[in-house]
């Protein structure tokens, strides 16, 4: 048993345990931290599989951005999980049944006989004498440049549409006008009032 296999079993064990902790711990902040550990351990497994791009994307996008944002949101909201956990045992049999059905479907889709077989197809990055990230970048920006640009345009349009839907005027809500805020002057906000000083007369005995 070489070091890579030992590392794989170690990272896989940490991934499974941290994933179980995400759905079992009561504190939502601890759950988010366990999910960060799950993603990081999964990225280590991707590195062992020589999929450097997937590992880097998982760490930078999910661990470095999405999960940190979730952590700050959960900490600021101070969610009370007691009402949310009421009646959890009532839905547990249905959840277990759904999980078993999903597992059976995945096994039927992949095939039980595939579990003991090794992948014999050659690695295109290794055949080209490049790293996984270098080969993926070259293939993406040469052979698939048009689908990549179309995906970028679609995402840009989706972002603009989401912003426009968010900025709709609704009754009963307060809105800010950035243009008027930038054009504001000191005289419009601060007014100096001059008053004559009055000397208090002392009471004479």
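^ Assign residues to that structure.
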């Amino acid at each position: 048993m070489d070091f890579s296999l030992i590392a794989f079993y170690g990272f896989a064990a940490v991934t499974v345990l941290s994933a179980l902790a995400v759905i079992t711990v009561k504190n939502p902040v601890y759950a988010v931290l366990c999910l960060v550990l799950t993603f990081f351990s999964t990225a280590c497994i991707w590195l062992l599989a020589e999929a450097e791009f997937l590992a880097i994307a998982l760490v930078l996008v999910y661990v470095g951005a999405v999960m940190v944002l979730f952590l700050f949101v959960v900490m600021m909201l101070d969610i009370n999980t007691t009402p949310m956990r009421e009646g959890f045992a009532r839905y547990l049999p249905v959840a277990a049944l759904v999980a078993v059905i999903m597992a059976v479907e995945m096994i039927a889709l992949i095939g039980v006989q595939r579990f003991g077989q090794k992948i014999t197809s050659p690695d295109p990055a290794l055949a080209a004498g490049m790293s996984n990230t270098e080969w993926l970048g070259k293939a993406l920006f040469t052979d698939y440049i048009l689908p990549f640009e179309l995906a970028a345009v679609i995402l840009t349009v989706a972002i603009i549409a989401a912003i426009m839907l968010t900025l709709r005027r609704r009754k009963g809500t307060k809105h800010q006008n950035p243009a008027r805020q930038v054009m504001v002057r000191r005289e419009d906000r601060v007014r100096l009032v001059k008053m004559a000083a009055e000397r208090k007369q002392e009471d004479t005995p």
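DSSP finds nine helices and no strands in the chain.
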